[in-house]
Protein backbone atom coordinates (compact mmCIF):
# COMPACT_ATOMS: atom_id res chain seq x y z
CA UNK A 1 0.00 0.00 0.00
CA UNK A 2 1.54 3.30 -1.17
CA UNK A 3 0.40 6.10 1.13
CA UNK A 4 3.53 8.23 1.36
CA UNK A 5 3.23 12.01 1.85
CA UNK A 6 4.74 12.78 -1.56
CA UNK A 7 2.00 10.78 -3.28
CA UNK A 8 -0.67 12.70 -1.37
CA UNK A 9 0.97 15.99 -2.30
CA UNK A 10 0.79 14.95 -5.94
CA UNK A 11 -2.87 14.00 -5.47
CA UNK A 12 -3.66 17.44 -4.09
CA UNK A 13 -2.33 19.11 -7.24
CA UNK A 14 -4.87 17.15 -9.25
CA UNK A 15 -7.92 17.97 -7.10
CA UNK A 16 -10.11 21.06 -6.95
CA UNK A 17 -11.25 20.25 -3.43
CA UNK A 18 -8.99 20.25 -0.36
CA UNK A 19 -7.03 17.22 0.81
CA UNK A 20 -6.97 16.74 4.59
CA UNK A 21 -4.11 14.74 6.11
CA UNK A 22 -4.04 13.81 9.82
CA UNK A 23 -3.27 16.86 11.92
CA UNK A 24 -4.87 19.36 9.54
CA UNK A 25 -7.47 21.64 11.17
CA UNK A 26 -10.51 20.07 9.47
CA UNK A 27 -9.37 16.43 9.59
CA UNK A 28 -11.04 15.34 12.84
CA UNK A 29 -14.34 17.01 12.00
CA UNK A 30 -14.37 15.44 8.54
CA UNK A 31 -13.71 11.93 9.85
CA UNK A 32 -16.22 12.17 12.70
CA UNK A 33 -19.49 10.35 12.24
CA UNK A 34 -22.97 10.43 13.72
CA UNK A 35 -22.28 7.24 15.69
CA UNK A 36 -19.57 8.03 18.25
CA UNK A 37 -18.83 4.31 18.66
CA UNK A 38 -17.02 4.53 15.30
CA UNK A 39 -13.57 6.12 15.65
CA UNK A 40 -11.37 5.43 12.64
CA UNK A 41 -8.49 7.39 11.14
CA UNK A 42 -8.14 7.43 7.35
CA UNK A 43 -4.71 8.08 5.83
CA UNK A 44 -6.15 11.12 4.10
CA UNK A 45 -9.54 12.72 3.39
CA UNK A 46 -10.44 14.23 0.01
CA UNK A 47 -13.23 16.81 0.05
CA UNK A 48 -14.49 16.42 -3.50
CA UNK A 49 -15.83 19.41 -5.41
CA UNK A 50 -16.92 17.56 -8.53
CA UNK A 51 -17.00 14.34 -10.50
CA UNK A 52 -13.44 14.87 -11.71
CA UNK A 53 -12.23 14.81 -8.10
CA UNK A 54 -14.07 11.53 -7.54
CA UNK A 55 -12.56 9.93 -10.63
CA UNK A 56 -9.07 11.09 -9.66
CA UNK A 57 -9.43 9.65 -6.15
CA UNK A 58 -10.80 6.33 -7.38
CA UNK A 59 -7.86 5.95 -9.73
CA UNK A 60 -5.39 7.01 -7.03
CA UNK A 61 -6.75 4.55 -4.47
CA UNK A 62 -6.89 1.69 -6.96
CA UNK A 63 -3.33 2.21 -8.17
CA UNK A 64 -1.96 2.32 -4.60
CA UNK A 65 -4.08 -0.40 -3.02
CA UNK A 66 -5.85 1.97 -0.63
CA UNK A 67 -9.27 1.17 0.79
CA UNK A 68 -11.75 3.76 -0.48
CA UNK A 69 -14.66 4.90 1.67
CA UNK A 70 -17.35 7.46 0.87
CA UNK A 71 -19.00 9.85 3.32
CA UNK A 72 -22.29 11.44 2.36
CA UNK A 73 -24.15 12.32 5.55
CA UNK A 74 -22.03 10.06 7.79
CA UNK A 75 -25.22 8.78 9.42
CA UNK A 76 -24.76 5.05 8.80
CA UNK A 77 -24.97 3.02 12.02
CA UNK A 78 -22.01 0.81 10.99
CA UNK A 79 -19.74 3.75 10.16
CA UNK A 80 -19.10 2.63 6.58
CA UNK A 81 -18.00 6.14 5.59
CA UNK A 82 -14.52 5.86 7.10
CA UNK A 83 -11.76 3.24 7.28
CA UNK A 84 -8.45 3.11 9.13
CA UNK A 85 -5.56 3.92 6.81
CA UNK A 86 -7.71 4.41 3.73
CA UNK A 87 -8.69 7.24 1.40
CA UNK A 88 -11.99 8.79 2.42
CA UNK A 89 -14.10 10.78 -0.02
CA UNK A 90 -16.01 13.45 1.88
CA UNK A 91 -18.92 14.64 -0.27
CA UNK A 92 -20.00 17.44 2.09
CA UNK A 93 -19.15 20.13 -0.49
CA UNK A 94 -21.34 18.50 -3.17
CA UNK A 95 -24.85 19.37 -1.95
CA UNK A 96 -26.53 20.85 -5.00
CA UNK A 97 -30.20 20.11 -5.77
CA UNK A 98 -31.90 21.07 -9.04
CA UNK A 99 -35.67 20.69 -9.40
CA UNK A 100 -37.64 20.39 -12.63
CA UNK A 101 -41.18 21.16 -11.43
CA UNK A 102 -42.75 20.54 -14.83
CA UNK A 103 -41.10 17.15 -15.20
CA UNK A 104 -41.46 16.41 -11.47
CA UNK A 105 -37.87 15.36 -11.04
CA UNK A 106 -34.93 16.47 -8.90
CA UNK A 107 -31.21 16.06 -9.45
CA UNK A 108 -29.25 15.71 -6.20
CA UNK A 109 -25.53 15.49 -5.57
CA UNK A 110 -24.09 12.80 -3.26
CA UNK A 111 -23.38 15.09 -0.29
CA UNK A 112 -27.01 16.12 0.06
CA UNK A 113 -28.78 15.58 3.33
CA UNK A 114 -32.48 14.74 3.26
CA UNK A 115 -33.27 18.26 4.41
CA UNK A 116 -31.44 19.72 1.41
CA UNK A 117 -33.67 17.81 -1.01
CA UNK A 118 -36.87 18.53 0.91
CA UNK A 119 -36.14 22.26 1.11
CA UNK A 120 -35.74 22.61 -2.65
CA UNK A 121 -38.54 20.30 -3.75
CA UNK A 122 -41.08 21.78 -1.33
CA UNK A 123 -40.70 25.18 -3.00
CA UNK A 124 -42.80 23.56 -5.73
CA UNK A 125 -45.12 21.49 -3.52
CA UNK A 126 -43.24 18.34 -4.48
CA UNK A 127 -41.40 15.67 -2.50
CA UNK A 128 -39.35 12.52 -2.91
CA UNK A 129 -39.64 9.46 -0.70
CA UNK A 130 -36.94 10.08 1.90
CA UNK A 131 -36.22 9.00 5.47
CA UNK A 132 -37.32 10.25 8.88
CA UNK A 133 -34.26 12.24 10.02
CA UNK A 134 -33.38 15.31 7.95
CA UNK A 135 -29.64 15.14 8.72
CA UNK A 136 -29.30 11.72 7.10
CA UNK A 137 -27.41 11.53 3.80
CA UNK A 138 -29.67 11.08 0.78
CA UNK A 139 -27.13 8.87 -0.99
CA UNK A 140 -26.92 6.26 1.75
CA UNK A 141 -30.68 6.14 2.25
CA UNK A 142 -31.30 5.66 -1.45
CA UNK A 143 -28.61 3.07 -2.14
CA UNK A 144 -29.82 0.96 0.80
CA UNK A 145 -33.46 1.03 -0.31
CA UNK A 146 -34.84 3.78 1.91
CA UNK A 147 -38.21 4.39 3.52
CA UNK A 148 -40.08 7.28 5.12
CA UNK A 149 -43.45 8.92 5.64
CA UNK A 150 -44.31 8.58 1.93
CA UNK A 151 -43.32 4.92 1.47
CA UNK A 152 -46.87 3.62 1.93
CA UNK A 153 -47.92 5.82 -1.01
CA UNK A 154 -44.98 5.56 -3.40
CA UNK A 155 -42.65 2.70 -2.39
CA UNK A 156 -39.03 2.40 -1.29
CA UNK A 157 -36.87 5.46 -1.91
CA UNK A 158 -34.98 3.43 -4.50
CA UNK A 159 -38.26 2.76 -6.35
CA UNK A 160 -38.48 6.47 -7.11
CA UNK A 161 -35.01 6.87 -8.63
CA UNK A 162 -35.01 7.41 -12.39
CA UNK A 163 -31.27 7.37 -12.98
CA UNK A 164 -27.86 7.62 -11.33
CA UNK A 165 -24.45 8.76 -12.54
CA UNK A 166 -21.73 6.43 -11.28
CA UNK A 167 -17.94 6.36 -11.12
CA UNK A 168 -17.01 2.71 -11.50
CA UNK A 169 -14.07 0.78 -10.07
CA UNK A 170 -12.04 1.33 -13.24
CA UNK A 171 -12.63 5.10 -13.12
CA UNK A 172 -15.28 5.33 -15.84
CA UNK A 173 -18.33 7.61 -15.61
CA UNK A 174 -21.51 5.76 -16.56
CA UNK A 175 -25.22 6.43 -16.38
CA UNK A 176 -27.45 3.79 -14.86
CA UNK A 177 -31.17 3.69 -15.66
CA UNK A 178 -33.79 1.32 -17.03
CA UNK A 179 -32.41 2.07 -20.52
CA UNK A 180 -28.67 2.40 -19.85
CA UNK A 181 -26.75 -0.26 -17.92
CA UNK A 182 -29.98 -1.69 -16.48
CA UNK A 183 -28.14 -4.41 -14.55
CA UNK A 184 -26.12 -1.80 -12.67
CA UNK A 185 -29.26 0.25 -12.10
CA UNK A 186 -30.97 -2.82 -10.64
CA UNK A 187 -28.11 -3.43 -8.23
CA UNK A 188 -27.71 0.17 -7.12
CA UNK A 189 -31.34 0.30 -5.97
CA UNK A 190 -30.70 -1.42 -2.66
CA UNK A 191 -27.20 -2.83 -3.12
CA UNK A 192 -25.50 -0.09 -1.13
CA UNK A 193 -22.06 1.17 -2.10
CA UNK A 194 -20.95 -2.10 -3.69
CA UNK A 195 -20.83 -1.02 -7.33
CA UNK A 196 -19.37 2.47 -7.51
CA UNK A 197 -19.48 6.06 -6.29
CA UNK A 198 -22.78 7.66 -7.28
CA UNK A 199 -22.23 11.34 -8.15
CA UNK A 200 -25.81 12.24 -9.12
CA UNK A 201 -29.28 10.96 -8.29
CA UNK A 202 -32.36 11.70 -10.35
CA UNK A 203 -35.45 11.36 -8.16
CA UNK A 204 -39.05 11.18 -9.27
CA UNK A 205 -41.16 13.71 -7.32
CA UNK A 206 -44.77 13.64 -6.15
CA UNK A 207 -47.27 16.36 -5.18
CA UNK A 208 -47.01 16.60 -1.37
CA UNK A 209 -47.56 19.58 0.91
CA UNK A 210 -46.30 22.15 1.38
CA UNK A 211 -48.79 21.76 4.28
CA UNK A 212 -49.69 18.38 5.75
CA UNK A 213 -51.19 17.18 9.03
CA UNK A 214 -48.57 15.68 11.30
CA UNK A 215 -46.88 15.63 14.66
CA UNK A 216 -46.72 13.47 17.77
CA UNK A 217 -49.24 12.27 20.35
CA UNK A 218 -47.95 10.62 23.53
CA UNK A 219 -49.41 8.59 26.39
CA UNK A 220 -47.98 7.23 29.64
CA UNK A 221 -46.52 3.73 29.35
CA UNK A 222 -49.38 2.34 31.45
CA UNK A 223 -51.57 2.82 28.37
CA UNK A 224 -49.11 1.17 26.00
CA UNK A 225 -51.08 -2.04 25.45
CA UNK A 226 -54.29 -0.17 24.63
CA UNK A 227 -52.51 2.38 22.44
CA UNK A 228 -50.65 -0.29 20.49
CA UNK A 229 -53.84 -2.29 20.01
CA UNK A 230 -55.44 0.87 18.59
CA UNK A 231 -52.33 1.36 16.46
CA UNK A 232 -52.52 -2.21 15.14
CA UNK A 233 -56.14 -1.78 14.09
CA UNK A 234 -55.48 1.67 12.64
CA UNK A 235 -52.61 0.39 10.53
CA UNK A 236 -54.76 -2.34 9.01
CA UNK A 237 -57.30 0.16 7.67
CA UNK A 238 -55.19 3.26 7.12
CA UNK A 239 -55.17 4.83 3.65
CA UNK A 240 -51.71 5.12 2.01
CA UNK A 241 -51.64 8.86 2.77
CA UNK A 242 -51.44 8.10 6.51
CA UNK A 243 -48.22 6.90 8.09
CA UNK A 244 -48.07 6.38 11.84
CA UNK A 245 -44.83 5.43 13.61
CA UNK A 246 -44.98 3.92 17.11
CA UNK A 247 -42.15 4.75 19.53
CA UNK A 248 -41.72 3.34 23.04
CA UNK A 249 -39.08 5.14 25.11
CA UNK A 250 -38.61 7.42 28.10
CA UNK A 251 -40.09 10.87 27.58
CA UNK A 252 -37.56 13.51 26.52
CA UNK A 253 -37.61 16.95 28.20
CA UNK A 254 -39.70 18.34 25.35
CA UNK A 255 -41.68 21.53 26.04
CA UNK A 256 -44.91 19.98 24.76
CA UNK A 257 -44.75 17.27 27.45
CA UNK A 258 -45.50 18.07 31.11
CA UNK A 259 -42.47 18.03 33.41
CA UNK A 260 -43.85 15.25 35.56
CA UNK A 261 -43.65 12.96 32.51
CA UNK A 262 -40.04 13.80 31.62
CA UNK A 263 -37.77 10.73 31.85
CA UNK A 264 -40.80 8.50 32.46
CA UNK A 265 -41.75 5.69 30.04
CA UNK A 266 -44.19 6.69 27.31
CA UNK A 267 -45.64 5.39 24.08
CA UNK A 268 -45.88 7.91 21.25
CA UNK A 269 -47.35 7.88 17.76
CA UNK A 270 -45.64 10.04 15.14
CA UNK A 271 -48.31 10.88 12.59
CA UNK A 272 -48.03 12.12 9.01
CA UNK A 273 -51.07 12.43 6.74
CA UNK A 274 -49.94 13.75 3.36
CA UNK A 275 -53.37 13.86 1.74
CA UNK A 276 -55.95 16.68 1.64
CA UNK A 277 -55.68 18.63 4.89
CA UNK A 278 -59.39 18.65 5.78
CA UNK A 279 -59.63 14.90 5.24
CA UNK A 280 -56.45 14.38 7.24
CA UNK A 281 -57.72 16.35 10.23
CA UNK A 282 -60.83 14.19 10.44
CA UNK A 283 -58.81 11.00 10.28
CA UNK A 284 -56.20 11.90 12.91
CA UNK A 285 -58.86 13.12 15.36
CA UNK A 286 -59.36 9.51 16.48
CA UNK A 287 -55.69 9.34 17.45
CA UNK A 288 -55.59 12.68 19.23
CA UNK A 289 -58.62 11.83 21.38
CA UNK A 290 -57.77 8.22 22.18
CA UNK A 291 -57.51 7.55 25.92
CA UNK A 292 -55.74 10.23 27.97
CA UNK A 293 -52.75 11.65 26.03
CA UNK A 294 -50.12 13.49 28.06
CA UNK A 295 -49.03 15.52 25.06
CA UNK A 296 -50.22 16.22 21.54
CA UNK A 297 -48.75 18.34 18.75
CA UNK A 298 -50.50 16.73 15.77
CA UNK A 299 -51.62 19.69 13.68
CA UNK A 300 -51.31 21.37 10.30
CA UNK A 301 -47.62 21.99 9.63
CA UNK A 302 -45.19 22.34 6.72
CA UNK A 303 -43.98 19.02 5.39
CA UNK A 304 -40.37 20.21 5.80
CA UNK A 305 -40.89 20.54 9.57
CA UNK A 306 -42.51 17.10 9.73
CA UNK A 307 -39.30 15.76 8.22
CA UNK A 308 -37.29 17.18 11.15
CA UNK A 309 -39.50 16.00 14.02
CA UNK A 310 -37.25 13.09 14.98
CA UNK A 311 -33.93 14.89 14.46
CA UNK A 312 -33.49 15.71 18.15
CA UNK A 313 -33.79 12.03 19.09
CA UNK A 314 -30.67 11.17 17.06
CA UNK A 315 -28.02 13.86 17.53
CA UNK A 316 -24.53 13.42 16.19
CA UNK A 317 -22.00 12.27 18.78
CA UNK A 318 -24.02 9.82 20.85
CA UNK A 319 -23.17 6.14 20.96
CA UNK A 320 -25.60 4.02 18.93
CA UNK A 321 -26.25 0.32 18.57
CA UNK A 322 -29.30 -0.97 16.67
CA UNK A 323 -30.92 -4.28 15.85
CA UNK A 324 -33.62 -4.46 13.21
CA UNK A 325 -35.98 -6.81 11.37
CA UNK A 326 -38.77 -6.60 8.81
CA UNK A 327 -42.13 -7.77 10.16
CA UNK A 328 -45.11 -9.26 8.27
CA UNK A 329 -47.54 -7.41 10.55
CA UNK A 330 -48.32 -6.52 14.15
CA UNK A 331 -49.61 -9.45 16.16
CA UNK A 332 -50.80 -9.00 19.76
CA UNK A 333 -47.99 -11.32 20.94
CA UNK A 334 -45.37 -9.18 19.19
CA UNK A 335 -46.76 -5.96 20.64
CA UNK A 336 -46.76 -7.43 24.16
CA UNK A 337 -43.08 -8.28 23.78
CA UNK A 338 -42.31 -4.80 22.41
CA UNK A 339 -43.83 -3.27 25.54
CA UNK A 340 -41.88 -5.67 27.75
CA UNK A 341 -38.48 -4.88 26.23
CA UNK A 342 -39.12 -1.15 25.99
CA UNK A 343 -39.65 -1.23 29.73
CA UNK A 344 -36.12 -2.55 30.23
CA UNK A 345 -34.16 0.18 28.42
CA UNK A 346 -30.80 1.03 29.98
CA UNK A 347 -30.66 4.60 28.67
CA UNK A 348 -33.21 7.43 28.52
CA UNK A 349 -32.42 7.83 24.81
CA UNK A 350 -33.06 4.23 23.72
CA UNK A 351 -36.30 3.13 22.10
CA UNK A 352 -38.22 0.42 20.32
CA UNK A 353 -39.71 1.76 17.10
CA UNK A 354 -42.26 0.37 14.63
CA UNK A 355 -42.25 1.97 11.15
CA UNK A 356 -45.08 0.94 8.76
CA UNK A 357 -43.95 0.30 5.18
CA UNK A 358 -46.93 -1.61 3.79
CA UNK A 359 -48.69 -0.37 0.70
CA UNK A 360 -46.88 0.62 -2.47
CA UNK A 361 -43.80 -1.58 -2.00
CA UNK A 362 -45.90 -4.72 -2.44
CA UNK A 363 -47.23 -3.60 -5.83
CA UNK A 364 -43.92 -4.42 -7.50
CA UNK A 365 -42.36 -7.90 -7.82
CA UNK A 366 -39.68 -9.04 -5.40
CA UNK A 367 -37.04 -8.90 -8.12
CA UNK A 368 -37.94 -5.40 -9.34
CA UNK A 369 -34.73 -4.13 -7.71
CA UNK A 370 -32.06 -5.30 -5.32
CA UNK A 371 -33.78 -4.02 -2.17
CA UNK A 372 -36.49 -6.71 -2.40
CA UNK A 373 -38.33 -7.38 0.89
CA UNK A 374 -41.69 -6.54 -0.67
CA UNK A 375 -43.43 -8.77 1.84
CA UNK A 376 -42.44 -6.37 4.65
CA UNK A 377 -45.24 -4.51 6.36
CA UNK A 378 -43.39 -3.00 9.34
CA UNK A 379 -39.78 -2.20 10.22
CA UNK A 380 -38.85 -3.10 13.80
CA UNK A 381 -35.90 -1.03 15.01
CA UNK A 382 -34.42 -1.57 18.46
CA UNK A 383 -32.38 1.59 18.94
CA UNK A 384 -29.79 1.65 21.69
CA UNK A 385 -28.57 5.21 22.28
CA UNK A 386 -26.43 6.50 25.16
CA UNK A 387 -23.70 8.97 26.10
CA UNK A 388 -20.72 7.26 27.77
CA UNK A 389 -18.33 4.54 26.60
CA UNK A 390 -18.45 2.84 29.99
CA UNK A 391 -22.14 2.12 29.36
CA UNK A 392 -21.52 0.29 26.08
CA UNK A 393 -21.86 -3.26 27.35
CA UNK A 394 -25.16 -2.76 29.17
CA UNK A 395 -26.83 -0.94 26.30
CA UNK A 396 -25.60 -3.29 23.61
CA UNK A 397 -26.80 -6.27 25.63
CA UNK A 398 -30.26 -4.69 26.06
CA UNK A 399 -30.61 -4.31 22.28
CA UNK A 400 -29.33 -7.81 21.59
CA UNK A 401 -31.59 -9.40 24.22
CA UNK A 402 -34.66 -7.65 22.83
CA UNK A 403 -33.70 -8.65 19.28
CA UNK A 404 -33.11 -12.30 20.18
CA UNK A 405 -36.62 -12.42 21.62
CA UNK A 406 -38.36 -10.43 18.85
CA UNK A 407 -36.69 -11.78 15.71
CA UNK A 408 -39.00 -14.82 15.71
CA UNK A 409 -41.68 -12.44 14.43
CA UNK A 410 -39.52 -11.42 11.41
CA UNK A 411 -40.27 -12.03 7.73
CA UNK A 412 -36.70 -13.29 7.60
CA UNK A 413 -35.52 -10.06 5.97
CA UNK A 414 -33.82 -7.00 7.40
CA UNK A 415 -32.96 -3.45 6.29
CA UNK A 416 -29.38 -3.24 5.04
CA UNK A 417 -28.90 0.35 6.27
CA UNK A 418 -29.70 -0.66 9.86
CA UNK A 419 -27.07 -3.42 10.10
CA UNK A 420 -24.43 -2.65 12.70
CA UNK A 421 -20.65 -2.94 12.39
CA UNK A 422 -20.31 -6.59 13.44
CA UNK A 423 -23.21 -7.93 11.33
CA UNK A 424 -21.54 -9.71 8.43
CA UNK A 425 -22.19 -12.01 5.49
CA UNK A 426 -25.04 -13.99 6.99
CA UNK A 427 -27.04 -10.86 7.78
CA UNK A 428 -26.26 -9.32 4.38
CA UNK A 429 -27.61 -12.47 2.72
CA UNK A 430 -30.68 -12.24 4.94
CA UNK A 431 -31.22 -8.64 3.92
CA UNK A 432 -31.31 -9.49 0.21
CA UNK A 433 -32.89 -12.94 0.26
CA UNK A 434 -33.45 -14.36 -3.22
CA UNK A 435 -31.87 -11.28 -4.83
CA UNK A 436 -28.44 -12.02 -3.36
CA UNK A 437 -27.18 -14.33 -6.11
CA UNK A 438 -28.05 -11.77 -8.79
CA UNK A 439 -26.15 -9.13 -6.83
CA UNK A 440 -23.05 -11.36 -6.87
CA UNK A 441 -23.25 -11.54 -10.66
CA UNK A 442 -23.53 -7.74 -10.97
CA UNK A 443 -20.68 -7.23 -8.51
CA UNK A 444 -18.50 -9.67 -10.46
CA UNK A 445 -19.15 -7.74 -13.69
CA UNK A 446 -18.73 -4.19 -12.38
CA UNK A 447 -16.21 -4.65 -9.54
CA UNK A 448 -14.45 -8.00 -10.00
CA UNK A 449 -11.58 -7.13 -7.60
CA UNK A 450 -13.95 -5.94 -4.82
CA UNK A 451 -12.38 -2.48 -4.91
CA UNK A 452 -15.56 -1.09 -3.33
CA UNK A 453 -15.52 -3.13 -0.13
CA UNK A 454 -16.07 -0.53 2.60
CA UNK A 455 -19.77 -1.40 2.73
CA UNK A 456 -22.07 -4.22 3.70
CA UNK A 457 -20.12 -6.23 1.21
CA UNK A 458 -21.28 -8.45 -1.59
CA UNK A 459 -18.10 -10.26 -2.65
CA UNK A 460 -17.60 -10.95 -6.37
CA UNK A 461 -17.54 -14.52 -7.58
CA UNK A 462 -14.06 -16.02 -7.58
CA UNK A 463 -12.83 -16.81 -11.07
Reconstruct the topology from this structure:
Elements: H1 5-13, E1 19-20, H2 27-31, E2 44-47, H3 51-64, E3 68-71, E4 87-90, E5 97-100, E6 105-108, H4 114-121, E7 126-127, H5 138-143, H6 151-154, E8 161-167, E9 173-177, H7 182-188, E10 197-204, E11 206-207, E12 211-220, H8 224-237, E13 242-250, E14 265-273, H9 277-288, E15 295-296, E16 299-302, H10 303-306, E17 319-327, H11 332-342, E18 351-356, E19 378-386, H12 392-406, H13 425-432, H14 436-446
Parallel strand pairs: 2-4, 3-4
Antiparallel strand pairs: 1-2, 5-6, 6-10, 7-11, 8-9, 8-10, 12-14, 12-15, 12-16, 13-14, 13-18, 17-19, 18-19
- End-to-end separation in angstroms reads 24 Å
Q: Quick one: how many beta strands? A: 19
Major beta-sheet overview: 8 strands, antiparallel
Oligomer: single chain
* Overall pLDDT confidence: 96
List segments where confidence is low: pLDDT < 50 over at least 5 consecutive residues: none
Q: State the helicity in percent bands.
A: 25-40%
What Rg, in angstroms, do the CA atoms define? 22 Å
Shape: globular
Number of helices: 14
The SS-based structural class is alpha+beta
Q: Strand-residue fraction?
A: 15-25%
Amino acid sequence: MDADPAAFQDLQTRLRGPLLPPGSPAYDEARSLWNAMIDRRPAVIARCLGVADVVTCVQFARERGLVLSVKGGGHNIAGLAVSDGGLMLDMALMRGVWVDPAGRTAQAQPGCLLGDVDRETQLHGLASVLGFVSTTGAAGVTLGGGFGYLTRRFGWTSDTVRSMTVVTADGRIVRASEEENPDLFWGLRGGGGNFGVVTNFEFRLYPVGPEIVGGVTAWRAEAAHDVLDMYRRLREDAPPELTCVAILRNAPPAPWLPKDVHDKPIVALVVCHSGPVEQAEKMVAAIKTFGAPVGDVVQRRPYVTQQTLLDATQPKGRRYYWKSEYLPGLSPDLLAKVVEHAGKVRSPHSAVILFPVDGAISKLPEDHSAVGNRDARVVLNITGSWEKAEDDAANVEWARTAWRDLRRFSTGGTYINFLTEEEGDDRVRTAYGKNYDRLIEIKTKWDPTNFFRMNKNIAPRKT
